[in-house]
Amino acid sequence: MTQSRTENRQMTLAARPVGTPGAEHFALKTTPVSSIVEGQLLLRTVYLSLDPYMRGRMSDADSYADPVAIGGVMVGGTINRVVASRHPDYREGDWVLSYGVGWQDYGVSDGSFLFKLDPAQAPVSHALGVLGMPGFTAFMGLMDIGQPKAGETLVVAAATGPVGATVAQIGKIMGCRVVAIAGSDEKCRVAREELGADVALNHKASDFEQQLAAACPNGIDIYFENVGGRVLKAVLPLLNAKARIPLCGTVSNYNASALPQGPDHLDWAWSTILTKRATVKGFIIFDDYGHRYGEFAKQMGQWVSEGKIHYLEQIVDGLENAPEALKGLLEGKNFGKLVIRVGEDELA
Amino acid sequence: MTQSRTENRQMTLAARPVGTPGAEHFALKTTPVSSIVEGQLLLRTVYLSLDPYMRGRMSDADSYADPVAIGGVMVGGTINRVVASRHPDYREGDWVLSYGVGWQDYGVSDGSFLFKLDPAQAPVSHALGVLGMPGFTAFMGLMDIGQPKAGETLVVAAATGPVGATVAQIGKIMGCRVVAIAGSDEKCRVAREELGADVALNHKASDFEQQLAAACPNGIDIYFENVGGRVLKAVLPLLNAKARIPLCGTVSNYNASALPQGPDHLDWAWSTILTKRATVKGFIIFDDYGHRYGEFAKQMGQWVSEGKIHYLEQIVDGLENAPEALKGLLEGKNFGKLVIRVGEDELA
Q: Global pTM?
């Protein structure tokens, strides 16, 4: 975790994984720290966000964003400090959220994809989670697509992940009955005790489908979807008329290298959507809702400061541990928002 | 086709089909024509609409409407003449559209589910098609969910059926590039020459997927879905960002008695909807849009009277032939809107 002032460690993509990514798909390189010219900033990375979408960037399959090139630095959101500035809007020591640095100690920016942070307002790492992309995804997906109404049943998968945990808590604020789904009994306990879910179910239980039906005696009005797979198949038959499905991820199949074995459930799902008159809407948060970021930031900032939304964060030390941590994330081993501490707040 | 003045032929459900329905699942019964009391009407059936949704009513699987009971008269929309009236709003000889009579020569009504028709305005049978439920489905699904814009690519399946043919023509009125899909070369010819589709493709062609990709060089913005199955799988990879899928039927699997063989395409479809930020919306026309019938009737009436929408209708004579005709409909053998002529306009 010790960062040099002159050397820049970069975690690069060494090979495209088929199936689960591991250490062999990454290579740690060292290059000199860049110098900057007029209009530029030098940024040092303190926190790196790990998110499921990164699996997609490692693959060259058609997706909504370009893949990382082989040999290129892995992309990702980071919290950085300004080391040196020749840009009029930033000064040395400023904290920023950046989408242009990625998995490395240092990056040069011209000010694009940079957002200034106020460390007095909230812990800076929250900008990678509840006050950033995952929180924004939860907020717009649930509020705009899910349209929650008091008394409705909301099912949320990956409920202790940074999106799911926020969805569950907004659901409670809106008066919904919240049924949380997670991958371990301990996660289920947290979903109930810390996030306030009315029920939490472990999707690895052999009778998960029956448990879900029993937990939703009035059917399901909103299914906030970020996993797909077994949970999706269990949810569909329980949908109520005019159910809404905000769809922001299908993490259960991100590591899949082939279609799952049959039978083929696509037509069955399709006719369920028809007979339930349901709406399924895929969304990519900044593409679809970038113009509504201010609305989110204001409301979520208020909820967090009032203690109405709790934030679960898991910090792993060391850029060198990021590949293993990403693998664990894709396997559901994280607990809350997974962040890599790449460097200290202040250099020694 | 000869109707008695005293005997009422009823086509009843004799057994629930597994797979394709046939003559063995129906029984023709004869009962006396009912008498009416104050407030009632006696209706004689002239036309009976056959529609894919009827397959669902023969089954007791969970759906959006109750199944027909074994021994009960098959349900359906009909065009009737008033034989006798003790209801203040109707007189002998009036033409009505009814959803309460179904597959029989005569029915008694208290005025519910009855709509008066003006035979001077349009052929009465049109109220079962372009000016009725199928036309309404096409209109609201395309206009409200599909949100067509000039220059966009619209793909419509079952394109010579009463819904698809109307969708294709509204799509042209809205300035879309219309790619029609149908199940025979002759249907494709009609889709091009009579409905104005820019391209029409036979989904039974061995290279259908490649033909569809070639026909949609700018991707697909709207897929009006009424079939599912192979066409759906060919469409999904071609969707553009923010594509819309109005979903009103999945006729390719109405006769299925088990899920199709794998692999399972559900997660693949789901991640496609996500990455394309697409919207899929199931709808049941009168449940979702009943309150907007007037808007439809006015616009569609105008388009039809101006000759902007052409109507394809196939009339089969005889209530006794309805089971076989329904079987053919589910197998894609019909050509345009399929209607059974149960009786003559005037009794001999």
A: 0.89
